[in-house]
């Protein structure tokens, strides 16, 4: 974050806007006290967020439980021998 006095902001406004376009935040001050923030427009962030959500959703479509139900997974995780055998999961000797 860059702090800029009003007189400097007026004199170099175009340069400040270029910095904001690059993602910087500018704090405009009057006698050292903040009076305004110049920040990048939120539309860019929203678009990036929407793209990220779309990518996550596309990734999730390819993932799954390979036809297994949640109960089957829980039973196998708890060491239920019959459920494990029915699903052709290897049964360790400690589970016998």
Give a written overview of the molecule.
There is one protein chain. The protein is of the alpha+beta class and 96 residues long. 51% of the residues lie in helices and 16% in strands. It is built from five helices and three strands; from the N terminus they run E-H-H-E-E-H-H-H. It has helices at residues 6-11, 13-21, 42-61, 70-77, 81-86; strands at 2-5, 26-30, 33-38. It has a three-stranded mixed sheet. Strand 2 (26-30) and strand 3 (33-38) form a beta hairpin. The longest helix has 20 residues, at 42-61.
Keywords:
single chain, alpha+beta, 3-stranded mixed beta sheet, 51% helix, 5 helices, 96 residues
**Range of helix content:** 40-55%
Question: Quick one: overall form?
Answer: rod-shaped
Number of helices: 5
User: Low-confidence segments, ≥5 residues, pLDDT <50?
Assistant: none
Give the C-alpha Rg: 29 Å
Spell out the blueprint of helices and strands.
Layout: E1 2-5, H1 6-11, H2 13-21, E2 26-30, E3 33-38, H3 42-61, H4 70-77, H5 81-86
Parallel strand pairs: 1-2
Antiparallel strand pairs: 2-3
Give the structure's gist in a few sentences.
This protein is α+β, with helices and mostly antiparallel strands and 96 residues long. It has five helices and three strands; from the N terminus they run βααββααα.
């Amino acid at each position: 974050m860059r702090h800029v006095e009003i007189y400097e902001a007026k004199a170099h406004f175009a340069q400040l806007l270029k910095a904001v376009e690059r993602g910087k935040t500018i704090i405009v001050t009057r006698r050292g006290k903040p009076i305004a923030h110049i920040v990048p427009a939120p539309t860019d962030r929203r678009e990036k967020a929407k793209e990220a959500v779309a990518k996550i959703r596309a990734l999730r479509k390819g993932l799954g439980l390979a036809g297994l139900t949640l109960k089957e997974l829980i039973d196998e995780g708890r060491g239920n021998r019959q459920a494990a055998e029915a699903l052709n999961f290897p049964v360790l000797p400690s589970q016998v």
